[in-house]
Design goal:
alpha+beta, single chain, 6 helices
């Protein structure tokens, strides 16, 4: 039903919780050994937790998991389940009287599809951890379950988004990206700029830019694309933040327009530290991986909640 990929970065595991009836879910990127992390918040409507501590100069150097969730701000509750899972395994920042798991996270808005009362909670976050492994499901799963794209004509003209993965490598260096794609704009082929999934009008996709320029757009401020970039490179905190920043270029290549006032785009970067690597090369690889993960998200998505996916639309439009 869903395509799967094998996790490319040792020490990192990914798990999903998927509620196909409520049409929501969450995804957990577990790094129980602790990894250096950075973050770049580029959208103007973000929903986040524990992102301030990722800035250079702040005390905590390593994180133990990252949460991506649907449910808008309600979905941040799922991080509590991730913390519980890690605490039970004695994983966390040593604070003397307790080990405190460090779990940054970000959410996307999927309340307009499925049941708006269905949101990932602590139980969902815990279950996603139990489901974590080396095989990564793609499509309408986890944080991508309720994701949609191309909403300039409103939800009635939207196309199903989802969750995708991709990786790039040079020698022994590996960069892997996981993206939950819930964008206001359309997803395009990074090489040709062809619209792959966007606002629907009749039997074709239309350009968000054209809709905006004609003043016929229907503002839909509840969007956001979330991504995690993981590498086996050895980076410090400043470099991890730079990696997240450069990875945002992948959004700009595959989502048109990106980083709008209606989106809350966030990219996390994780470095496990096995290999030496140049940050410029890593950033370039990360941008490519993010762009491809975004494409994979819409290509592998399934129709849910009355919103058709690309796979279904292609069959309809070619009959």
């Amino acid at each position: 039903m869903f395509r799967e990929k094998r996790m490319e970065v040792p020490g990192i595991k990914i798990g999903h919780y998927t509620d196909r009836e409520g049409v929501t879910g969450c995804t957990v990127v577990l790094c129980p050994g602790g990894v250096v992390a950075g973050c770049d918040v580029r959208g103007s409507a973000p929903g986040t937790r524990e992102t301030d501590l990722l800035r250079p100069g702040n005390l905590v150097e390593r994180v133990h998991g990252v949460l991506l969730a649907g449910g808008s701000a309600f979905g941040l509750e799922a991080a509590g389940g991730v913390m519980k899972y890690l605490e039970e395994r004695n994983i966390g920042f040593e604070a003397g009287v307790a080990r405190v798991p460090i779990v940054p996270g970000a959410v996307l808005f999927d309340l307009a599809i499925g049941d708006p009362r269905a949101r990932p909670d602590a139980r969902a976050g815990y279950q996603a951890c139990l489901n974590a492994g080396d095989e990564v499901e793609e499509g309408s799963v986890g944080a991508g379950t309720g994701a949609t794209v191309g909403k300039a004509l409103g939800m009635t003209g939207a196309t199903k988004g989802g969750l995708g993965t991709a990786h790039r490598s040079v020698g022994r260096l590996v960069v892997m990206a996981v993206a939950a794609v819930n964008a206001f704009g359309e997803v395009v082929d990074p090489g040709t700029a062809e619209i792959l999934a966007g606002p629907r009008a009749g039997t074709a996709f239309v350009s968000t830019l054209e809709v905006l320029s004609q003043a016929s757009a229907k503002p839909f401020p509840q969007n956001t694309t979330l991504a995690v970039v993981a590498t086996n490179a050895r980076l410090n905190k400043e470099q991890a933040n730079k990696l997240a920043q450069m990875a945002q270029d992948g959004l700009a290549r595959a989502i048109r327009p990106s980083h709008t006032m209606y989106d809350g785009d966030v990219v996390f970067a994780l470095a496990t530290g096995e290999e030496a690597g140049d940050i410029n090369l890593l950033g370039a690889l990360a941008a490519e991986a993010v762009a491809q993960a975004i494409v994979r998200a819409v290509e592998t998505a399934q129709s849910l909640g009355g919103i058709p996916a690309v796979q279904e639309l292609r069959k309809r439009w070619t009959r």
